[in-house]
Amino acid sequence: MSQVYILCIDDETEVLEQLKQDLAEFNDTFPIKLAHSTEEARELIPNLTHHGDQIGVVLCSHFLPGENGIDFMISMRNELEMSETRMVLITRRAGLEETIKGLNEGRLNYYLSKPWVREDIINVVREQLTDFFIRSRKNPMAYLEKLSTIRVFEAIHKGILPRDE
Questions:
Q1: 112-163 residue pLDDT tens
Q2: How many Cα atoms are found within 13 Å in the side-chain-facing hemisphere of 116?
Q3: Cα(117)–Cα(121) distance, rounded to whole angstroms?
Q4: String of DSSP letters for the chain
Q5: Omega prior to 31 cis, within 30 of 0
Q6: Which residues of 84-94 are buried (b: 16+ CB within 10 A; e: fewer)?
Q7: Which of 60, 68, 85, 160 sits at 20 to 30 Å (Cα–Cα) from 15?
Q8: End-to-end alpha-carbon separation of the chain, Å?
Q9: Which residues have a Cβ under 8 Å from the Cβ of 1 and sit 6 or more positions away?
Q10: Per-residue pLDDT tens over the stretch 55-103
Q11: Beta-carbon neighbour count of residue 145 at 10 Å?
Q12: Do 148 and 122 meet the contact criterion of CB atoms below 8 Å apart?
């Protein structure tokens, strides 16, 4: 069974620790990996995806040292191993123009403001992981307890997802 990861990118250690804590219920099924910059994330991604494993969701801050989060997510859309990865922008200061650029060019899947509410981020990650499995047509059965089961079974019923044989 291949591994599906959650990647969190933020230059503030406290924010990364809060993400890891708030998303802890996913960690056994979807290991959470942390990066303090897009450069660090770019070094980490090949290590996570080299054996057919995938990154299901990226949660990325906008304001980062060097490359900003929106530009990073736009560039990741061109990477084959990241083509179905769900992209979530987490920020407290992105301007409207930058957010529109991210939505249009980077196909951001969700925008979440800092500070977030724990239940909200859990729901966002659950829905985005479910979308990852539906869009990639990857068999979700081994991961089902952490996904939106109603949406998964609807996708199976419609023939979008494979039935577990």
A1: 888 899 999 999 999 999 999 999 988 898 999 999 999 999 999 998 887 7
A2: 25
A3: 6
A4: ---EEEEEE-S-HHHHHHHHHHTGGGTTTS-EEEESSHHHHHHHHHHHHTTS-EEEEEEEESS-SSS-HHHHHHHHTTSGGGTT-EEEEEES---HHHHHHHHHHS---EEEESSPPHHHHHHHHHHHHHHHHHHHT---GGGGGGS-HHHHHHHHHTTSSPPP-
A5: no
A6: bbbbbbbbeeb
A7: 85
A8: 15
A9: 142
A10: 999 999 988 888 888 889 888 877 878 889 999 988 876 555 665 655 6
A11: 9
A12: no
Residue pair 44/94 in contact (Cβ under 8 Å)? The answer is no
Compute the radius of gyration of the chain from its Cα atoms. 15
**Number of residues that this document lists for the chain:** 165
- Residue whose structure tokens are 């997510």: 73
Q: Which of 108, 50, 52 lies closest to 76, judged by CA?
A: 108
Does residue 16 contact residue 61 with C-beta atoms inside 8 Å?
A: no
Dist. CA 46–CA 122, nearest whole Å: 26
d(CA 141, CA 35): 29
Please list the residues that pair with 35 across neighbouring strands: 9
